[in-house]
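RECORD TYPE: inverse folding
INPUT: structure tokens
STRUCTURE:
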């Protein structure tokens, strides 16, 4: 049997595994960036995939302050060595996964005068402008209750080095190096900077309802995905080294001459930027969205495992207690090469959680034979009897014994008081 359970808006196609943009909603397509199984150390099989999206940031290094407008996305795989997380980056160079490094314009450019930015932007040769490219080392993290048990990342450690780019700087001008980075320890709590420096406080954000995916198999195997949105992570306890290896002649291709050291710009850059800077003179403040997923979902997203069928959870959102929701349609699509028979006994699970608060409005699947590439639909409605999160599921066979029950899809909604 091979079928996929998708929202009614998904388009049908002929047989075979569906592409990721149809298997997963937009907020979950980062799963395709999870590292492959073979990237994990021997004896430490992958358990979870973690996606961190940082945005709306403020970074101050010494006297230089810059905003982080473009989102930075990091996707890592997680295993465990006992209780210690083993974190594997998503790409071989350790640049942080799907987002990779991105250039940030340094205010004031080579002159160090932010007020001259309009002039610097008009420089056709780029001699006056300076950009900074962050290079991210191996990320570490700690979660409330342990990695995999919570979406609340209490700490995210970012080993950083920053390459400074300008026509005159050469290709080795940097603040820190990949071999010797400075480390920012972001926290959603309160920092402990040196005496005399005001602490910064973060925010845990809001955890979203967990969504459970089911893709078939011999057992009742759900694969959860959880989100936490709008956390604010901060740090002002890290020190930053000075710029190094910024040679004008090297930038002009003459770095091997005896006079290269005479035009070294390290001291000039450090004077303008206030580097090196001890702990307390630097800070990072940034908003963070995180998502955790069971590793099987990463395998599915990459096409590493065959799918018997796949379900997007059917979510009804917030509905007033005693009121009926709008009708949501669960679409069943056959993605196998042959016909698929849907059991006549398909229906809501009478023994699962809050199934009495969900109802089938119209079932156009039960007892039907679905041709390859064709689909059928089940219209569902949610009527909460009390406030709070409610969960149910739609089964292939609602009369099966408990240990033989196989779901088509998980249902979810939230009752709110009028």
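DESIGNED SEQUENCE:
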């Amino acid at each position: 049997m091979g079928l996929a359970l998708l929202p009614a808006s998904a388009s049908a196609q002929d047989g075979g595994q569906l592409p990721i943009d149809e298997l997963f909603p937009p907020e979950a397509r980062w799963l395709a960036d999870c590292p492959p199984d073979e990237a994990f150390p021997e004896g430490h099989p992958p358990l979870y995939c973690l996606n961190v999206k940082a945005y709306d940031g403020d970074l101050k290094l010494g006297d230089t302050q810059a905003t982080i407008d473009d989102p930075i996305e990091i996707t890592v795989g997680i295993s465990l060595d006992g209780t210690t997380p083993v974190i594997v980056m998503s790409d071989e160079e350790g640049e942080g996964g799907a987002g990779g490094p991105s250039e940030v314009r340094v205010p004031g450019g080579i002159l160090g005068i932010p007020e001259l930015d309009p002039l610097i932007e008009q420089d056709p040769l780029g001699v006056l402008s300076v950009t900074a490219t962050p290079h991210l080392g191996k990320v570490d993290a700690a979660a409330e209750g342990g990695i995999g048990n919570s979406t609340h990342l209490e700490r995210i450690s970012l080993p950083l080095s920053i390459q400074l780019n300008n026509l005159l700087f050469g290709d080795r001008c940097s603040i820190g190096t990949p071999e010797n980075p400075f480390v920012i320890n972001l926290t959603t709590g309160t920092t402990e900077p040196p005496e005399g420096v005001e602490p910064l406080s973060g925010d845990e954000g809001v955890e979203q309802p967990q969504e459970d995916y089911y893709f078939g198999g011999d057992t009742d195997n759900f694969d959860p995905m959880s989100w936490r949105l709008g956390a604010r992570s901060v740090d002002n306890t890290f020190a930053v080294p000075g710029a190094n290896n910024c040679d004008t002649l090297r930038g002009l291709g003459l770095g091997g001459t005896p006079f290269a050291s005479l035009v070294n710009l390290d001291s000039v850059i450090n004077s303008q930027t206030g580097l090196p800077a001890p702990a307390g003179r630097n800070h990072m403040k940034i908003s963070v969205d995180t998502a955790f997923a069971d590793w099987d979902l990463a395998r599915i997203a990459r096409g590493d495992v065959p799918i018997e069928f796949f379900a997007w959870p059917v979510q009804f959102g917030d509905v007033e207690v005693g009121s009926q929701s709008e009708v949501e349609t669960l679409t069943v699509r056959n993605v196998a090469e042959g016909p698929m028979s849907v059991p006549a006994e398909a229906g809501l699970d009478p023994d699962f959680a809050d199934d009495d608060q969900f109802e089938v409005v119209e079932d156009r699947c039960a007892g039907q034979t679905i041709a390859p590439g064709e689909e059928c639909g089940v219209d569902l409605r949610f009527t909460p009897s009390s406030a709070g999160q409610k969960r149910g599921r739609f089964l292939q066979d609602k009369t099966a014994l408990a240990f033989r029950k196989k779901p088509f899809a998980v249902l979810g909604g939230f009752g709110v008081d009028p």
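NOTES: Confidence is low (pLDDT under 50) at residues 1-16, 92-101.
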